[in-house]
From TrEMBL:
The keyword Acyltransferase does not apply. Keywords: Plasmid. This is DUF1330 domain-containing protein. SUPFAM superfamilies: Dimeric alpha+beta barrel. Residues 35-109 form the DUF1330 domain. PANTHER family: DUF1330 DOMAIN-CONTAINING PROTEIN, PTHR40257. Pfam families: DUF1330. InterPro entries: Dimeric_a/b-barrel, DUF1330. Gene3D superfamilies: 3.30.70.100. It comes from Martelella mediterranea DSM 17316.
Length: 122
């Protein structure tokens, strides 16, 4: 997963406006203990994420979808707010994150989508 993120970072940072960014994580767990490994990941990742001024806003289990095509249901989602795109990039490239947290995340997930979001003023 980190390789995919690394490849996307230049464009992601080129479009940085300095505003906070929320990362929506759509998660599909490995069948054999993925959910438990993801809980281990969160325990290790949370303090690392906090060092970059970010916070886990929400983590929740997915329920059966009301409107979705086959295969579009997710086991869980997490929403993490970063103070900037650069803060996310710095966290993703941090040695502690790469060496301690990312391997747990990768082992926990069968599939994931990391979707950046930006608040729209009403």
């Amino acid at each position: 997963m980190l390789t995919l993120i690394e490849n996307a970072l230049p464009r992601f940072l080129d479009e940085d406006d300095g505003q906070p960014v929320d990362m929506l994580n759509l998660l599909r767990f490995q069948e054999d203990g993925g959910k438990e490994r993801y809980a281990d990941y969160l325990a290790i990742a949370a303090p690392i994420i906090a060092r970059f001024g970010a916070a886990i806003v929400y983590v929740g289990n997915g329920l059966p979808p009301l409107s979705a095509e086959s295969g579009q249901a997710w086991d869980a989602l997490a929403l993490v707010r970063y103070p900037s795109r650069q803060a996310f990039a710095d966290m993703a490239m941090d040695d502690d994150y790469r060496d301690k947290a990312a391997p747990l995340r990768d082992a926990a997930l069968a599939e994931a989508v990391l979707q950046p979001l930006q608040t729209v003023s009403a």
